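User: Show me a protein chain along with its predicted structure.
Assistant: Here is one chain, sequence first, then structure tokens.
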Amino acid sequence: MNILEKPLFPKQAQSLLAWKASLTTQFLGIDTLFYSASTLSFQSPNRFVKEAELIVMGKHFTTEQLQSLLNILSAHNISCVQLCVPEKIADITGIRLLLNSFPSTLKQSLDKFVQQVALDFALRHCFPDFSKPGLVLMDMDSTTIQIECIDEMARLYGVGLEVSAITHEAMLGKIDFNSSLRTRVSKLKGAPLSLLKKVADSMPWMPGVEILITQLHDAGWKVAIASGGFHYFADRLQEDLGFDFCIANHLEVENGLLTGNVVGEIINAQVKARTLVQLTTQYDCLPTQTIAIGDGANDLLMLQAAGLGIALHAKPIVQQQAHCALVHLDLQGALVLLALTRICKWC
């Protein structure tokens, strides 16, 4: 029997893992599972050619949500979907779907859907292969850590409101990054180096960053920082978390005080994207094996240049243009996404 004679999904919504257990109990030896013409079958109705991959994941993922997702795919004239086996990794449940077409309007519909059901997704022609070496290039402020360091410095120095307002506009892409950085740094003129140490000593890491870096290294991947922030903080993170490389801006210091100037080339969007290309060559990676993670407009070129660009708790303009937006999950979601790229068969 190739077609499931029972209903596709239970009348009462259940977790994907419970549904998986039910299917594998009823139908021993399931290898592949396809959805076509509102029917689940163990073999593709026609010759199946993958044109795109979709990964959907969340803390709570039910059969009702999966059915709604498949309805959306059908509404976009995707005539056949291969369902890889759903898995739970840590406390995140996810599933990888292989699609036989890639409509240009699909991402917009998926954006609306996941907002309603508190899930996250990634959609690409092909994802990086976690079983092969690769490169992850991360932004620092509000990505690797939960704060904007310059805003914290400004707050401690008594100019917090005016600096944070400029930071907000810059991250939205409303003002030029280079000039905004110089303006913000100028307001820190006279601040002591001890202020930087105070901020560095209390930087809150983004949840999931430590396990992400550990498991990436275990898989033979390189992990780097490209930050529009400052080397003082990136160097601390490299030391504490084991980043393979970091690039960030340098603050000018005289007699133990900030001069209010930035020294050298400013790390803006173009430099971040260039760094991705340079590290891809340096580490002998395929471009398709690169991932960039960021949250602001300054990260957009880097995200778009990578094999997979992940917007993390990002500004709306970044979420719209990135390949993947992690809204409900943290950095562990990036790790789960990579792990799901290796999972397909049901047995």
